[in-house]
Amino acid sequence: MALVDMPGYGYAKAPKEQVDLWTKLVFDYLRGRATLKRVYLLIDARHGIKKNDDDVLDLLDKAAVSYQIVLTKTDKIKPPAVEKLLIATAEKTRKHPAAFPGIIATSSEKNAGLDTLRQAIQETVAG
Question: Tens digit of pLDDT for each residue in 70-94?
Fold first, then answer.
């Protein structure tokens, strides 16, 4: 198993042209990679799926790359808001053919959801 941490495509303290080059590099890497089992797309729970995330979901759908959403920083919002965000995110991803069902909510500060994420990765690799 190889686990690759790709650079983010959203927030970056760099000129737009540089971010665009990084984005192209990331998606050139992902496209047509037959051994790639799944992309785990990290979404900040404080913001949910934004426009640039939607663009990435569409691109992954077109490239037929399986992906699963991982909400990060869920400790930064109140528990009722986390539940609403999980429902809204699941509803939004239902319309995407390459989206793997099931949203994983995590918090590295509270160590929440990390075992679930590890298990999902193990099951993906084993399957």
Answer: 999 999 999 999 999 999 999 999 9
Domain containing 102 equals 36-126
Q: Give domain status of residue 42, yes or no.
A: yes
* Count of other CB atoms within 10 angstroms of residue 78: 10
Average pLDDT over residues 5-30: 75
Q: In the chain, count H helices and then E strands.
A: 4, 3
C-beta neighbour count of 9 within 10 angstroms: 19
* 24 phi/psi in degrees, rounded to 5: -60, -45
Give the CATH number of the domain where residue 47 resides. 3.40.50.300
Sheet of strand 67-72: strand arrangement: 39-44, 67-72, 104-105
For tokens 């797309």, what's the residue? 41
Is residue 108 within 8 Å of 75, Cβ to Cβ? Answer: no
Rounded to a whole number of angstroms, the CA Rg of the chain reads 15
CA gap 105, 102 in Å, rounded = 10
Query: Does 96 reside within a domain?
Result: yes
Tokens of 100: 């793997």
